[in-house]
Write a structure and sequence with these properties.
Length: 392
């Protein structure tokens, strides 16, 4: 196939997905909203900035490591609001650039890997074409619940992207329903599969035996939809009863707000802030932990959730509709109010005290991920779905 991806090429999720098709031998073109180096070959790379992404310095990501987080949580929130209110106004010039790229590449299929701003950009570019290839959009976990309703222009451009889409990829059933509410035709084809393609069993697998040390990992980093304040405030509550507990936080090294919370709460001895970790290192970190905490208020199916489950790590996650598609509360995970430090603490303490619960959940989750979350299975489904979409 001849595929044009419109994506943030810094993203490990997007890179993992796109890499699969380059390795298959498909002719892959990539229009990225952020400028970066690649560790896989493409037929042609085009930088198409959107929502002020040209202000971000070009990045080089060795080994596909996750992109560094912004300097502070406050800065992250302010930038997100600016992009939501003003970002769609920046699309027109990049849409012209992308439209010319489409005419030159003549792809069989265009796949935008997120609605803001890649799906919005691709939809705008296609409006100027007399003959257009089929257009597929991926929905990421907070596209509808956080971004779409955040500002008038976000509502308008989200609806326009959904009406333009010929096929849809979501990572949860909830987003199929929401896509239709935002204008996607219910008669058009849909693929439900993990956003990054799924879990690679050679990297994410359970340890033998399960870990005995009371280690808790929070793998989500600093994002606008992750309640890190509630997570950090849960730590002293946990330490009151389990003074031997330790907390590992990837992608938070040097994060000013995290360091301030640690000092204020007096938990420096129990918390380790790590740099962003490669997939291989994340697998090791999950296998060393008994619990993984995901205190998100907006989410789809997080890759880190599936990866932690595959590694035998017991998940404690925000009680969200999308997460309930994977976790049955009390059986293979615990669902909590992500805004409540006490609820998070009580769930983590339950996990640390209940070896039987951890053991039974690890066995159940291993089977669940093998059946529904495996990378090869889901990418094979994606290839067949591409062929179906291409024929539209």
């Amino acid at each position: 196939m001849k595929i044009l991806f419109v994506a943030d090429a810094r993203s490990p999720i997007a890179r993992g997905w796109i890499r699969h098709f380059t390795q298959r031998g498909d002719e892959v073109f990539l229009a990225s909203t952020f400028d970066c180096d690649l560790d896989f070959p493409v037929a042609r790379f085009l930088f198409t900035p959107a929502a002020f992404s040209q202000l971000k310095a070009r990045t080089s990501l060795p080994g596909g490591a996750p992109a560094p987080m912004p300097a502070s949580a406050r800065t992250l929130a302010l930038r997100a609001r600016l992009r939501q209110w003003m970002g769609p106004l920046t699309l027109s010039s990049s849409a012209r650039k992308l439209r010319a790229f489409i005419r030159e590449a003549k792809p069989d299929l265009i796949h935008a890997m997120r609605i803001p701003y890649e799906g919005m950009l691709a939809a705008a570019a296609l409006e100027g074409l007399a003959v257009r290839p089929p257009f597929m959009v991926s929905v990421w976990g907070n596209d509808f619940t956080l971004h779409a309703p955040s500002a008038p222009l976000m509502r308008y451009f989200t609806r326009r992207a959904m009406k333009a889409a010929d096929a849809l990829h979501t990572d949860c059933k909830r987003d199929v329903r929401l896509a239709q509410e935002w204008g996607f035709d219910p008669d058009k084809p849909v693929l439900i599969a993990p956003g990054g393609g799924g879990v690679k069993p050679e990297i994410f697998y359970p340890p033998t035996p399960l870990p005995q040390e009371p280690v808790v990992i929070q793998p989500r980093g600093f994002r606008a939809y992750v309640n890190n304040e509630a997570f950090f405030k849960s730590i002293p509550l946990i330490l009151e009863k389990r003074g031997d507990a330790r907390f590992v936080c990837p992608a938070m090294q040097g994060e000013p707000q995290a360091m301030a919370w640690i000092r204020e709460l007096g938990v420096e001895h129990a918390v380790q802030l790590n740099p962003p970790l490669s997939h291989e290192r994340m697998g090791e970190a999950f296998r060393a932990a008994q619990a993984a905490v995901s205190p998100t208020v907006h989410d789809g199916t997080p890759n880190s959730l599936l990866e932690s489950m595959a590694c035998g790590c017991f998940p404690v996650a925000g009680d969200l509709e999308s997460i309930r598609e994977w976790i049955e509360h009390g059986k293979n995970g615990l669902l909590v109010d992500p805004n409540s430090p006490r609820a998070i603490a009580e769930a983590v303490l339950t996990v640390l005290e209940r070896e039987d619960l951890r053991r039974e959940a690890a066995a159940y989750n291993a089977g669940l991920i093998a059946a529904r979350g495996g990378y090869e299975r889901n990418m094979n489904l994606a290839v067949e779905f591409y062929k179906k979409a291409q024929a539209l």
